[in-house]
Amino acid sequence: MKFRVVLFILAFSMALFAQLADVEVTIEVDNLKPQEKSDLEFLNGQIKDYLQGHEYIDNKYNIALPVRISIFVQSSSLSGTERSFSGQMIAVTESNDLQLFEKNLKFNYSQSEALIHSPDIKSLPTILDFYALVLLGAEMDTYEPLGGTSIFEEARSLGTRAQMSNYSSGWTERLTSLDELTELRYFRQFKYYFWTIVDLEASENLKEIPEKIDKALYYLEEELKINNRNRFIHLFLDAHAQDLAELLRLYGNEKDKMRIIDLDPDNHETYENIFKN
Fold it and tell me: Among the four residues 7, 23, 86, 141, which has the most C-beta atoms within 10 Å?
């Protein structure tokens, strides 16, 4: 199980400003011609440096979020000295509890132009900034109830400007996905209480855990009444079912255990097996 108390210490020992830390970037170019592949030779390292070397938020919790980014480039076209690439992209948190998937990625890129942070709307840099803000907003939700709201709004503002720019491709879909995530207000508070329980256990402050379990299950139940099959909810539950089961086994009551099985039947075997021990 991931303990954020430990991560806080580790984060401080890493690059002090690295809010997206230990970024792993892979770029699949099997479908491209040799020259097109060559044009992308250094892009993975540039993306890594671009994301790790920027302060996106007021980082009062010393967040250092490990992220994996995979880009699957399927085609390319050349206009002057700049190439346009098309494909798919997925950004995933280390624990795999949040995945941001884009099936129609289009971006312009030239090796002669470095990826530089700028308030201006650019092709690839603005896409990277948008996803960085969404990932960090989701992470901030785990430190404060709905704590990522202002970061999500910054991402929305960026996406809205991009939607009206010369690089408008894909932004309607990105903003729709952002809305889908931010509107899960009960779920976002469930995540906060889940991680609060993890922190309480790590700090051996066990007396408060039963109350936090009640709150966590309340918010999960309320969200599932509205969005029973939402992908963000079930991805998180799938990633943390074992952790959640262990916490309920140690600190929950029988009602709590039956409740999570009813709320998350997809993972009922995980819950039932751990509750037997």
Answer: 141
